[in-house]
Amino acid sequence: VAGEIAEFTFGALGAGRARASKGAMAAAIAGALLGAVAGTAVLPLAGSFAGALAGAFIASYWAEHAKTGDAGQAKKVAMAVLVGQMAGTTVKFAVGVGMALTILVNLRWS
Length: 110
Hints:
By secondary structure, the chain is an all-alpha fold. It is built from 4 helices and no strands.
């Protein structure tokens, strides 16, 4: 659960650093969730990663552009969301590796 929270929160935090609207931050989270689901349907595992990144980027760009009408600001926000989403995915991966190692260490090998 911690990895999932980190993944989606980091994307929204990236939007906040780019002075995004609250709508763009919410759109980044929703876009990442929807993109991950859609991506998984197309190509399990890799598709969920690519879908989450694409969904967050597109949704945050659209929301910011709809609010401000400024394509440059919308691109800046979407790129910040993309970087944040990638950082969150890295944390999620690290949490998953830690969980797997914990299980392996605690297995009874007899």
